[in-house]
């Protein structure tokens, strides 16, 4: 295995092996269920240079990771714009008013919980109808949309129930980036692999999708509490 890198191996009913580098820097390997460990190691070894190159670039981009302190005036992003924290004894919930997030005076843990709840609720109201509209344009069925804590991914999808999941942190990104994430997941209902037909499908709805991919790579680390 690759030295100093956490690798998660997941065997599935599939014919090919895919390697993904997650948002936390771990490497996920999706391999055929009958593939031996030494065969997986051989695949990883053949792609070692590309993996290390990507991780090095990721580390450089993450150098600008936000370190927010829960004090008056601290900025928090919402739909690609920064709003400023302001405590008030007159509120018990987190509210968005003008250029400010108005918050009750509380500890850091409680404040983060209030922010997560805010992003989840706003995400459910915004993303669910958008996803249905995009599903109709792409020509796929969508049964459910969820806003969750996804750990290492911005979004994921389930083929069995026609469900798409989005990290609540996606609500910190610009609306155009959110649109890309939605279309990306819905395109997987037609094409599971990130191959040419898949990207062509995404391109039909989001012609400049590569700009959104680059935005997430560059600024994704700043979308955090």
Write the layout of secondary structure elements.
Elements: E1 7-12, E2 18-21, E3 27-32, H1 37-46, H2 48-61, E4 75-78, E5 81-87, E6 95-97, E7 100-103, H3 108-138, E8 144-148, E9 155-158, E10 163-167, H4 175-187, H5 196-205, H6 209-219
Parallel strand pairs: 1-3, 5-7, 8-10
Antiparallel strand pairs: 2-3, 4-5, 6-7, 9-10
Helix pairs in contact: 3-4, 4-5
Task: Identify the notable features of this structure and list them briefly.
225 residues; alpha/beta; 2 domains; 10 strands; 21% strand
Q: What does this protein structure show overall?
A:
The protein is α/β, with parallel strands linked by helices and about 220 residues long. The chain has two domains: about 5-65, no CATH class; about 105-220, Metalloproteases ("zincins"), catalytic domain (Zincin-like), CATH 3.30.2010.10. About 40% of the residues lie in helices and about 20% in strands. It has helices spanning about 35-45, 50-60, 110-140, 175-185, 195-205, 210-220, and strands at about 5-10, 20, 25-30, 75-80, 80-85, 95, 100-105, 145-150, 155-160, 165. The chain has a four-stranded mixed sheet with strand order 4-5-7-6, with helices on one face. Helix 3 (about 110-140) crosses helix 4 and helix 4 packs across helix 5. The longest helix has about 30 residues, at about 110-140. The mean pLDDT is about 90.
């Amino acid at each position: 295995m690759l030295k100093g890198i956490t690798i998660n191996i997941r065997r599935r009913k599939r014919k090919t092996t895919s390697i993904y580098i997650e948002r936390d820097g771990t490497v996920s390997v999706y391999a055929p269920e009958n593939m031996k460990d030494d065969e997986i190691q051989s695949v990883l070894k053949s792609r070692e240079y590309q993996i290390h190159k990507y991780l090095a670039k990721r580390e450089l981009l993450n150098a600008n990771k936000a370190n927010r302190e829960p004090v008056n005036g601290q900025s928090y992003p919402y739909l690609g714009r920064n709003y400023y924290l302001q405590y008030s004894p007159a509120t018990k919930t987190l509210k968005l008013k003008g250029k400010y997030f108005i918050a009750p005076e509380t500890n850091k843990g409680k404040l983060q919980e209030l922010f997560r709840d805010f992003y989840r609720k706003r995400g459910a109201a915004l993303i669910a109808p958008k996803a249905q509209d995009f599903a109709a344009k792409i020509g796929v069925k969508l049964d459910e949309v969820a806003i969750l804590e996804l750990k290492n991914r911005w979004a994921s999808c389930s083929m069995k129930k026609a469900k798409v999941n989005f990290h609540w942190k996606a609500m910190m990104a610009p609306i155009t980036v959110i649109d890309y994430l939605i279309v990306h997941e819905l395109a997987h209902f037609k094409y599971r692999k990130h191959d040419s037909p898949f990207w062509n499908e995404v391109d039909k709805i989001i012609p400049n999708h590569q700009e959104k991919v680059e935005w997430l790579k560059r600024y994704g680390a700043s979308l955090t509490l």
